[in-house]
């Protein structure tokens, strides 16, 4: 296939069928691959040039189909789908496993004192704020004032939630205390994501027809997108924050762990990392990245505009974000 790669390969869409869970899972295993974090700027730039040139009908000599798809997934892992800008390194989905395994492992290890809960919840929600901003839907810029207000409201709400839940578990069995970080993260995601993406809820996100032609913006689409992302993020946290506490509760009773308590944190981090390697792509795959909505479910004024400009459209599509 070398030298005569056809120009009809649709790299605007994922390689695998996004109408099935397995197809989406294969797609997100590639996008969230932690090894993508280690790729150099030169490799990322080469992938960007390869993808953008191919879309313009320019094929690099000797390029194979597998190399083209590899470039497309490197591009998808590092560049925003709406703006085309290179995303912040720690905000990319490929950074989820190394970043979250460290932060979550520490939250599960240092949960007994209030200062530790406050500090690690603040670190976690600050990281989540970066991820939510980096993976937002749409291409409208946020001002520093809007970003600052969203960050403060999101992190403050999340930390207060964590402290409230911690106080409720004082009289419960010790094992219940281990689940405070998970409950706090689940509740905080319901606060952090809408706050960091509040501009979308106010002004809407871009919606297109099946061919990708922009039809306007919709707040209803933004609401659906954010609900789906909240569900996915809570799903990601379930295995990583529910399974290790049970295992660690049993291990800490063993003589070996009592003799070497310093192993507590690294073992916890390792267990969390193992869970996240699978939970991150599988929970991203719960909903298609390119989500859809019936025109009849949109705001009345948006429906009217679509009827005038594209009377045959019955469904609109949008990037839900991650």
TrEMBL record:
Transmembrane domains' residue ranges: 175-195, 225-247, 267-287
Name the record gives this protein: Sidoreflexin
Protein source organism: Culter alburnus (Topmouth culter)
Topology versus the membrane: Multi-pass membrane protein
Keyword entries, A-Z: Amino-acid transport, Membrane, Mitochondrion, Transmembrane, Transmembrane helix, Transport
Keyword S-adenosyl-L-methionine: no
Catalysis: reaction(s): L-serine(in) = L-serine(out)
Main function: Mitochondrial serine transporter that mediates transport of serine into mitochondria, an important step of the one-carbon metabolism pathway. Mitochondrial serine is converted to glycine and formate, which then exits to the cytosol where it is used to generate the charged folates that serve as one-carbon donors.
Family classification: Belongs to the sideroflexin family.
Example GO molecular function: monoatomic ion transmembrane transporter activity
Keyword Kinase (UniProt): no
One Pfam family cited in the UniProt record for this chain: SFXNs
GO CC terms of this entry: mitochondrial inner membrane
Gene Ontology annotations of biological process type: serine import into mitochondrion
InterPro entries (UniProt xref): Mtc
Compartments in which it is found: Mitochondrion membrane
